[in-house]
Automatic annotation (TrEMBL):
<feature type="domain" description="ABC transporter">
    <location>
        <begin position="369"/>
        <end position="583"/>
    </location>
</feature>
<dbReference type="InterPro" id="IPR011527">
    <property type="entry name" value="ABC1_TM_dom"/>
</dbReference>
<feature type="domain" description="ABC transmembrane type-1">
    <location>
        <begin position="29"/>
        <end position="331"/>
    </location>
</feature>
<dbReference type="GO" id="GO:0016887">
    <property type="term" value="F:ATP hydrolysis activity"/>
</dbReference>
<keyword id="KW-0472">Membrane</keyword>
<feature type="transmembrane region" description="Helical">
    <location>
        <begin position="71"/>
        <end position="91"/>
    </location>
</feature>
<dbReference type="InterPro" id="IPR050835">
    <property type="entry name" value="ABC_transporter_sub-D"/>
</dbReference>
<dbReference type="InterPro" id="IPR036640">
    <property type="entry name" value="ABC1_TM_sf"/>
</dbReference>
<dbReference type="InterPro" id="IPR027417">
    <property type="entry name" value="P-loop_NTPase"/>
</dbReference>
<feature type="transmembrane region" description="Helical">
    <location>
        <begin position="146"/>
        <end position="167"/>
    </location>
</feature>
<dbReference type="InterPro" id="IPR003593">
    <property type="entry name" value="AAA+_ATPase"/>
</dbReference>
<keyword id="KW-1133">Transmembrane helix</keyword>
<feature type="transmembrane region" description="Helical">
    <location>
        <begin position="29"/>
        <end position="51"/>
    </location>
</feature>
<feature type="transmembrane region" description="Helical">
    <location>
        <begin position="187"/>
        <end position="207"/>
    </location>
</feature>
<dbReference type="InterPro" id="IPR003439">
    <property type="entry name" value="ABC_transporter-like_ATP-bd"/>
</dbReference>
<dbReference type="GO" id="GO:0005524">
    <property type="term" value="F:ATP binding"/>
</dbReference>
<keyword id="KW-0812">Transmembrane</keyword>
Length: 583
């Protein structure tokens, strides 16, 4: 019961915000319509139950007039039932897509808000495969919630509607055993209740492991799909390394987990289906077994027998809702758990970002970027690098060097505000525009024009402006392909991607430009040409570079180095030698 209450509380927390959102009016109207139609369908079921009595009595008495009239009456009820079910399905699907769209936009906004997606990775990405949770789990949550919610409403209303009918029929057709009546008020109701209680208990005992198995199955499926995408995205490197056999082994191992867990689901589902199918078939004849003695003793007519059997079946189906929907409930519970974990991971990332160890302060406009008492650590708390009273002055060109793993890129992440682990303060001038160019730039799939000007909208720069900078960075062949769609991170060489990264910086002209080995894949003459271009086109931009080539010294007027100090590294200025300055 504790688990059920916890799950329902989670469902309420996930579901209710939509019905309080900006789309609440339409959502509430659609939900009320779906539920209202379901109530009308239950009302028709009551009319069908009464129709059973009159129709089968007419057959028993061979009354053709009543028989013909009841056939026409049935056609009217059936036409109304069909219309209601058609429009209920249509409105239900309409509600599903509106609800899912709102949830998707909400989760996308929360996940991508202020680098939450990156913080979640740094914290270990407890919510694995966020793409699946946003795309698949939201769809399953909305669909399963409506299916189960409407089904539960039907079960409850049907139960109360037919319990009254069945209680009255119990008095009209008393329990007849060994030639005499045994007066048990509402014995048919008690029979249905006991039958359903036994079935529910056994169903839960057999099927309870399915919730955890379904949770794991979704995770294994998403992991397998994610690794397939990784293999496709890195096909060139795999081919160059002749890594097909190794990759196939890893993918087969991933799929092995999928298949192994699915076999467990199959085994458990086989047991559950064997019981529920037996239960369902037995429920067909169970009311006749109870009523047969009274019928053959002429205590009840055929119509009464059929009406009672129908009412008993309705009550028993309502009480057995948990049994018939058990597999759906297990899948739904795993989906709820995944969405709950996803929301918790987003909240944890947001809390980490809201209370970072590294504080960001606002310096006066035009002032330098200041690092005061800065100590960066890994997420585990292990010291990485430190910098105290280090200034990055305006319009200055600074080159940062240091051994691999000393924290150079992490320093850039901290300045960008996406690395919260550590202590100290980073002061950024007010209204400063900062751009980071990593070693491997990101280009969204789509038009080349839009990929280059990202993250701005394509309309922010004309085709002529983009074509000009593309030519300037040494890619005249791409200047005429700006309207072409493509997967540019996959089709362009890393050197070409780095040139386009510089083109992006030329277009946006930030006040502070940080280049994290952003030209390392180019030959030295090409790299020098790009740095000269930056000097020419962005004379007022402060440039900070990470690089290892000595040729970069000529394009920077200040050297800084990260050197070993205790358990980490310390950033400090490096005094140039005469030979280095001359070079």
């Amino acid at each position: 019961m504790t688990n059920i209450r916890s799950t329902l509380a989670t469902v309420w927390r996930i579901a209710v915000p939509y019905f309080k959102s900006e789309d609440r009016r339409m959502g509430r109207i659609l939900l009320a319509s779906v539920l209202g139609i379901e109530l009308a369908v239950v009302g028709l079921s009551v009319l069908f139950n009464r129709w059973n009595n009159v129709f089968y009595n007419a057959l028993q008495e061979r009354d053709y007039n009543v028989f013909a009239y009841q056939l026409g009456y049935f056609c009217v009820l059936a036409a109304i039932w069909i219309a209601l079910k058609v429009y209920q399905l249509y409105l239900n699907q309409w509600l599903q897509i509106r609800w899912r769209r709102w949830m998707t936009e909400r989760y996308l906004g929360d996940w991508l808000h202020d680098s939450n997606h990156y913080q979640m990775q740094l914290l270990g990405d407890a919510a694995d495969n966020p793409d699946q949770r946003i795309s698949e789990d939201t769809q399953l949550f909305v669909e399963r919630t409506l299916v189960l919610g409407v089904g539960l409403l039907n079960a409850v209303v049907t139960l109360f509607s037919f319990v009254i009918i069945l209680w009255g029929l119990s008095n009209e057709a008393p329990l007849h055993v060994f030639g005499r009546d045994i007066p048990i008020p509402g014995y048919l109701v008690w029979g249905a209740l006991i039958y359903a209680a036994i079935g529910t208990t056994l169903t839960h005992w057999i099927g309870s492991p399915l919730a955890e198995l379904n949770f794991r199955q979704q995770r294994f499926e998403a992991d397998f799909r994610f690794n397939l995408v990784r293999a496709r995205e890195n096909s060139e490197q795999i081919a160059l390394l002749r890594g097909e056999s190794a990759e196939r082994g890893k993918l087969s191992s991933r799929f092995g987990l999928v298949a192994e867990n699915f076999m467990r689901i199959m085994t458990r589902t086989k047991k559950l289906t064997a019981f529920t199918a037996s239960y369902s078939q037995a429920s067909v004849v169970f009311p006749y077994i109870l009523l047969a003695p009274a019928y053959f003793a002429n205590k009840v007519q055929l119509g009464g027998l059929m009406q009672t059997a129908s009412a008993f079946s309705s009550v028993q189906d309502s009480l057995s809702f948990f049994i018939t929907a058990y597999r759906t409930l297990a899948e739904w519970q795993s989906v709820v758990a995944r969405l709950d974990g996803f929301e918790a991971a987003i909240q944890t990332a947001g809390a980490q970002r809201a209370n970072p160890g590294v504080s960001r302060t606002v310096a006066k406009a035009g002032d330098a970027i200041r690092l005061d008492g800065l100590k960066l650590t890994l997420p585990s708390g292990q010291p990485l690098m430190s910098a105290d009273d280090f200034h990055i002055n305006g319009k200055e060109r600074t080159l940062i060097a240091g051994p691999s793993g000393s924290g150079k890129s992490t320093l850039f992440r901290a300045i960008a505000g996406i690395w919260p682990f550590g202590s100290g303060a980073i002061a950024i001038p007010a209204d400063a525009t900062i751009m980071m160019l990593p070693q491997r730039p990101y280009f969204p799939v789509g038009e080349l024009h839009a990929a280059i000007v990202y993250p701005s909208e394509p309309e922010a720069f004309t085709a002529a402006q983009v074509a000009e900078v593309v030519r300037e960075v040494g890619l005249p062949g791409l200047a005429d392909r700006l309207a072409e769609h493509g997967h540019w991170n996959r089709t362009l060489s890393l050197g070409e991607q780095q040139r386009l990264g510089v083109a992006r910086a030329l277009l946006h002209a930030p006040q502070y430009l940080f280049l994290d080995e952003a030209t390392a894949s180019l030959d030295e003459p090409s790299e020098a040409a790009l740095y000269r271009l930056l000097d020419q086109k962005l004379p007022d931009t402060t440039i900070v570079s990470i690089g290892h080539r000595s040729t970069l010294n000529a394009f920077h007027d200040r050297d800084a180095v990260l050197s070993r100090s205790g358990n980490g590294f310390t950033l400090h200025d490096k005094i140039r030698t005469a030979a280095a300055a001359e070079s």
